[in-house]
Amino acid sequence: MGKVFLFKKMSAFLFATLFVFIFAALYAFSAKPVLCDFGSVTLYEYYGSFSSGEKYSGGLVVKRRIKGESCDISGVSYGEILESFSAKHVLTEETPFGVSFYAFSPKISYRAEINGKTVNLHYFVRADEKSGAAKLGTPIIFGGY
After folding, report:
1. Structure confidence by residue, pLDDT tens digits, 22-52
2. Buried b / exposed e along 79-92 (16+ C-beta atoms within 10 A)
3. What is the dihedral of CA 140, 64, 76, 144, to 10 degrees?
4. Which of 6, 24, 69, 99 has its CA 20 to 30 A from that of 141?
5. In the chain, where are the structural domains located?
6. Mind spelling out the 3-state secondary structure of the chain?
7. How far apart are the C-alpha atoms of 142 and 145, rounded to whole Å?
């Protein structure tokens, strides 16, 4: 009886360990977009300003295929974005078109380098914007703003 009981305990332990491993592996490769809590997300499979994206339609996405995300937001300040992602401000760029704020969050796996600094969160406000609308992207905004 002792050997049977031990075999059952070991089998249950191995099954539980296998289940946790499979779940962790699936989560590591598939997840919801980082920005899905902030609005309608566009997913990008290629880097670049002229990259065309695809609207996220729900469910899990294969992370390794996605190079970045962006969404239009309204009424959410840059400070609130920093707080939400436990991010730190890295740099600011001002252009005639608007202001870009770049930050880094340890919660986001995407990465890009801007002026020799690693960033993964980009918040852009148009110069003529008065309504509180902005564009948010990770690691940077692809497809233009």
Report:
1. 555 555 555 788 998 888 899 988 776 666 7
2. eebbeebebeebee
3. 40
4. 24
5. 1-31, 32-138
6. CHHHHHHHHHHHHHHHHHHHHHHHHHHHHEECCCCCCCCCEEEECCCCCCCCCEECCCCCEEHHHCCEEEEEEECCCHHHHHHHCCCEEEEEEEECCEEEEEEECCCCCCCEEECCEEECEEEEEECCCCCCEEEEEECCCCCCC
7. 8
